[in-house]
């Protein structure tokens, strides 16, 4: 086979081979074929024995195969026989089933015909006796019958047959009854006859008029809602302004409206569900909401009119558009206090509305879920509901109200803050001035009120405004006071207070004492503000808890983002520091934090009020001889010539400030003083000379100082004294080489803060150490 | 904990119906949902992008265009790092409202804000009422960058937001470099840098 296919040399063309080259090629090809075929023959011959044994085994199995074949034929005939049998049996069963079904149908039809007869008789008597429920029941039964089938199967279904007559009668009765029910219902509506309304309401679904019944019924409910609401509005208009609820009367009226709608739904939902089936609430609500919108809109109109909402809103807008209008007189400026009560009512209106809409949403969703529908229909209905809630007139009116509310609340907040700043005062014994508490109180009050509206967007807007105020005006106010710096010279507190008692902070810089007090107060204000920002964020987060739990996803994210921005104001204080070259130049490292602004203020304080005063006190160290005899040493011990005095001076200095600073600011001040003391003392020590006893005495002096400073602050200061303590250790050595017991490998836990050169320098302060020994040291 | 290096706030503003929500959805979710209802208040989406090896989180605030939500919208201007002002190229009215929007931005936003003018609905260019030149010159006169987009065809949408992210990231990086050893340059008290944390 292989040879045949691969041998494609065309013998017919042999004659055409005239060229030697072609002949040669053809010959080569033939040779190749030949050798290939020879190979294949060899191959087959090689397998000859194998093939032969296979052939013989095949011969042997031939008889077996014949047996198998006959068995298979037999099996086949048996299977087909069984199949025929089964087909036979099941065919009969099917016939039986069909017969049974037909019998049942027949019984059904007979029943139907009987029912028809019964209904025809019943409906007429019922109509005559005005028993509409019964008549409607019959019509309902009739409507459930399949008229066409009925006509087909009855032999007398020709025109004029009894069934046909019965059907006609029923048809007429239905039209008749529908007419009667409509009329009666309308009369009942006009006379507000509740019992009749409910009676006929139940009949509509029996006549197959679900939508009509529901619509008529909702008309009745609407008129009820409207009547009651008008009544309430009239009452509201005549309410005594001194009444306890007068300030929130419109919110109350709106609440009553919502409660009425709620009650209507509550009472009638089971009725609708029983007679009209589940899943119809959305339709009912759509009709009812139209009325609710109308009435709510009236309430909002009244609110706007009687509270002069739009007038005030326009005033605020006009004020804002003048760009803060500093030129405007107080006369045309709206007093924020006039807004307070109205703003509160505004948020109440919104929170009631949110609550109402939530109620409606829950109700309808539950109703929708109780019906077995495919996802798409349900999705459409849910979308309809959301659209209704989002776009109903009530929502729009309240959104408008809240939009204006936000502007006015912001105005209220800003104006109140400005007022608090202008009335800023410092009470004796208080670290911070009144403005800090006042401003944070205002911010908290306003934002809390906005949160109480129950609207996430409203809450976020006021959180944003709070952040903006803190980051902007308030921060700038504090910084501008710090930038003025701390006036130099000593600080007479009594005089400062006497100035303050006459009124507010002095603005003239001539009075340095008061300016100093103000500077320290500002420092405290900043420090306390940082704390207050965090606690404001915490308490507002708590206020938001309810809102957060009601709103999933986006609402929650928005609130959290706005709250975080508020919390981050402390970081933004830092950013202002970044751009203020003032600070940048003074603070060495770049890792600012809020506290470092205070640090900056303190370092200003230190430069002008502390450094100059410390200097002479430290210089006193030089006047005490540290090259002393045993006698002098004991004398020093009994009656210290330097350190007691120095500590006393420090105590006085710190006491001046202590009462005017918050605890942490004071600690920061002590830390600064300590830095100054150690730096100056170090320099002074390097200008003295010591012997062994002098060194010992210095060590004692240092210990007293460290003990004192440790006692006045919460912070650790031992570390700041590390270099001085090490100097004392060196000055206390018996001999020069002893330093090696503490140096290098032997230093143990001690980390040397002094360089080898400095160690040598300190060693050379000892008059009894030879300079060759010091030079010879290998450090 | 938080998986990003910089966080920026981008606020979209413009008349109702110009396609702000569609732009945001296209960018953050890659969707173009037709038949979107009007936005209520403010919507909020997040997308993290990578700019030069750093994760940058963009908080996109999608505001309602309707007048009654204006006061809510305005409260976001101050903290925004970038503002995208959108109009509809098939609506003269939306274009004519731009000066009003610009004025509002100037009143409430911080001065260092990046603002971009966007003409949306490029897919409806056959019904165009505003030419590219008009858009461009309006942007120039208010010192804004300009781009025409189609949220439907995803034209220029990613570019719009990524350009903003790149510019903001560069700004912050430059400030970080300046805050290093050299500190003189930051003399302008007005240009508060407050976008990274």
Give the helices and strands, then pairings:
The complex is a heterodimer of chains A (779) and B (197).
Chain A lengths: L1 H5 L13 H27 L1 H81 L3 H13 L2 H7 L8 H29 L3 H10 L6 H28 L11 H28 L4 H26 L2 H13 L14 H34 L5 H17 L1 H30 L11 H19 L3 H28 L9 H9 L10 H39 L3 H14 L1 H11 L1 H6 L7 H26 L10 H9 L4 H16 L4 H23 L6 H21 L9 H10 L24 H8 L7 H6 L3
Helix pairs in contact in A: 3-4, 3-6, 4-6, 4-7, 6-7, 7-8, 8-9, 8-10, 9-10, 9-12, 10-14, 11-14, 12-13, 12-14, 12-15, 14-15, 14-16, 15-16, 15-18, 16-18, 16-19, 17-18, 18-19, 18-22, 22-24, 22-25, 26-27
Chain B lengths: L5 E8 L6 H10 L12 E10 L2 E10 L6 H5 L7 E7 L3 H5 L1 H11 L5 E7 L11 H10 L3 E4 L8 H22 L19
Parallel strand pairs in B: 1-3, 1-4, 4-5, 5-6
Antiparallel strand pairs in B: 2-3
Can you offer a commentary on this structure?
The complex is a heterodimer of chains A (779) and B (197). With 779 residues, chain A is mostly helical. Chain A has 29 helices and no strands. Chain A starts with a helix and ends with a helix. By secondary structure, chain B is of the alpha/beta class. In chain B, 32% of the residues lie in helices and 23% in strands.
Determine Rg of chain B (CA atoms, Å).
Answer: 17 Å
Number of strands of chain A: 0
Low-confidence stretches of chain B: 180-197
Largest interface: A-B, 42 and 33 residues
Number of helices of chain A: 29
Characterize the overall form of chain B: globular
Estimated share of beta-strand residues of chain A = under 5%
- Give the rounded overall mean pLDDT of chain A: 80
Helix content percent band of chain A: over 70%
Secondary-structure element string of chain A? HHHHHHHHHHHHHHHHHHHHHHHHHHHHH
Structural class of chain A: mainly alpha
The major pleated sheet of chain B works out as:
6 strands, mixed
Biggest sheet descriptor of chain A: none
Secondary-structure class of chain B: alpha/beta
Poorly predicted runs of chain A are: 1-6, 325-331, 501-510, 574-595
Organism (chain A): Holothuria leucospilota (Black long sea cucumber)
Subcellular location (chain A): Golgi apparatus membrane
GO cellular component, one term (chain A): Golgi transport complex
InterPro entries (chain A): COG4, COG4_C, COG4_M, COG4_N
């Amino acid at each position: 086979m292989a040879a045949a296919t691969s041998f494609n040399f065309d013998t017919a063309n042999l004659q055409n081979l005239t060229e030697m080259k072609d002949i040669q090629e053809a010959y080569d090809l033939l040779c190749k074929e030949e050798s290939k075929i020879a190979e294949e023959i060899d191959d087959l011959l090689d397998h000859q024995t194998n093939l032969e044994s296979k052939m013989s085994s095949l011969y042997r199995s031939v008889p077996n195969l014949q047996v198998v074949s006959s068995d298979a034929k037999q099996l086949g005939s048996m299977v087909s026989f069984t199949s025929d049998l089964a087909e036979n049996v099941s065919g009969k069963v099917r016939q039986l089933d069909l017969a049974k079904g037909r019998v049942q149908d027949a019984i059904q039809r007979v029943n139907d015909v009987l029912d028809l007869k019964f209904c025809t008789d019943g409906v007429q008597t019922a109509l005559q006796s005005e028993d509409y429920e019964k008549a409607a029941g019959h019509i309902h039964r009739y409507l459930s019958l399949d008229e066409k089938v009925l006509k087909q199967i009855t032999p007398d279904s020709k025109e004029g047959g009894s069934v046909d007559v019965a059907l006609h009668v029923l048809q007429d009765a239905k039209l008749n009854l529908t007419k009667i029910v409509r009329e009666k219902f309308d009369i009942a509506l006009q006379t507000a006859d509740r019992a009749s309304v409910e009676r006929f309401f139940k009949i509509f679904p029996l006549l197959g008029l679900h939508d009509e019944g529901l619509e008529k019924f909702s008309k009745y409910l609407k008129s009820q809602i409207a009547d009651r609401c008008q009544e309430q509005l009239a009452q509201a208009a005549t309410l005594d302004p001194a009444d306890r609820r007068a300030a929130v009367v419109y919110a109350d009226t709106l609440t009553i409206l919502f409660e009425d709608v709620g009650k209507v739904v509550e009472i009638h939902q089971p009725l609708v569900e029983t007679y009209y089936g589940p899943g119809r609430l959305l339709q009912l609500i759509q009709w009812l909401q139209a009325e609710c919108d109308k009435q709510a809109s009236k309430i909002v109109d009244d609110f706007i009119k009687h509270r002069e909402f739009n007038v005030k809103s326009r005033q605020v807008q006009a004020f804002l558009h003048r760009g803060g209008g500093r030129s405007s007189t107080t006369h045309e400026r709206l007093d924020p206090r006039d807004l307070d009560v109205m703003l509160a009512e505004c948020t109440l209106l919104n929170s009631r509305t949110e609550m109402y809409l939530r109620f409606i949403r829950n109700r309808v969703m539950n109703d929708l879920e109780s019906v077995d529908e495919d996802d798409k229909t349900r999705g459409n209905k849910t979308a309809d509901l959301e659209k209704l809630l989002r776009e109903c007139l009530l929502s729009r009116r309240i959104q408008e109200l809240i939009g204006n509310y936000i502007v006015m609340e912001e105005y209220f907040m800003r104006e109140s803050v400005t007022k608090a700043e202008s009335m800023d005062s410092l009470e004796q014994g208080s670290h911070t001035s009144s403005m800090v508490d006042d401003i944070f109180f205002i911010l908290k009050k306003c934002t809390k009120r906005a949160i109480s509206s129950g609207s996430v967007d409203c809450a976020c807007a006021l959180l944003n405004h709070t952040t903006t105020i803190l980051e902007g005006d308030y921060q700038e106010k504090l910084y501008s006071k710090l930038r003025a710096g701390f006036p130099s010279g000593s600080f007479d507190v009594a005089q400062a207070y006497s100035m303050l008692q006459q009124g507010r902070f002095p603005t003239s810089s001539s009075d340095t004492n008061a300016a100093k007090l103000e500077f320290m107060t500002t420092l405290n204000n900043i420090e306390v503000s940082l704390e207050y920002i965090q606690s404001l964020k915490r308490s507002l987060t708590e206020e938001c808890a309810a809102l957060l739990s009601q709103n999933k996803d986006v609402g929650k994210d928005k609130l959290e983002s706005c709250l975080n921005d508020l919390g981050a104001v402390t970081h933004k204080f830092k950013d202002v520091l970044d751009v203020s070259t003032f600070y940048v130049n003074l603070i060495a490292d770049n890792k600012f934090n809020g506290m470092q602004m205070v640090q900056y203020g303190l370092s200003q304080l230190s430069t002008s009020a502390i450094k100059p005063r410390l200097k002479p006190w430290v210089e006193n160290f030089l006047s005490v001889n540290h090259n002393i005899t045993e006698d002098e040493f004991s004398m020093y011990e009994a009656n210290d010539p330097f350190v007691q005095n120095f500590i006393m001076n420090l105590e006085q200095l710190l006491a001046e400030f202590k009462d005017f600073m918050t605890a942490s600011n004071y600690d920061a001040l002590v830390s600064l003083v300590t830095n100054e003391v150690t730096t100056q003392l170090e320099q002074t020590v390097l200008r003295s000379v010591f012997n062994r006893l002098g060194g010992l005495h210095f060590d004692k002096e240092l210990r007293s100082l460290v003990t004192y400073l440790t006692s006045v602050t919460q912070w650790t200061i031992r570390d700041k004294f590390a270099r001085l303590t090490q100097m004392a250790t060196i000055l206390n050595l018996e001999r020069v080489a002893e330093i090696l017991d503490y140096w290098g490998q032997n230093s143990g836990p001690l980390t040397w803060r002094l360089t080898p050169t400095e160690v040598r320098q300190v060693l050379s302060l000892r008059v009894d150490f030879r300079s060759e020994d010091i030079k010879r040291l290998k450090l | 904990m938080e998986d990003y290096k910089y966080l920026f706030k981008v606020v979209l503003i413009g008349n109702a119906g110009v396609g702000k929500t569609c732009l945001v959805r296209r960018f953050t979710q890659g969707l173009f949902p037709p038949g979107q209802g009007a936005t209520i208040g403010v919507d909020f989406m997040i997308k993290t992008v990578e700019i030069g090896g750093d994760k940058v989180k963009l908080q996109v605030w999608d505001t309602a265009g309707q007048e009654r939500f204006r006061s809510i919208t305005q409260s976001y201007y101050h903290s925004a790092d970038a503002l995208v002002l959108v109009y509809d190229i098939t609506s003269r009215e939306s274009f004519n409202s731009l000066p009003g929007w610009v004025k509002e931005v100037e009143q409430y936003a911080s001065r260092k804000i990046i603002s971009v003018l966007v003409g949306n609905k490029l897919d409806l260019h056959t019904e165009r009422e505003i030419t590219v030149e008009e858009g461009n010159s309006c942007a120039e006169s208010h010192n804004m960058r300009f781009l025409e987009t189609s949220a439907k065809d995803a034209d220029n949408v990613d570019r719009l937001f990524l350009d903003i992210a790149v510019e903001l990231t560069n700004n912050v990086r430059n400030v970080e470099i300046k805050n290093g050893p050299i500190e003189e340059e930051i003399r302008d008290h007005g240009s508060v840098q407050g976008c990274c944390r």
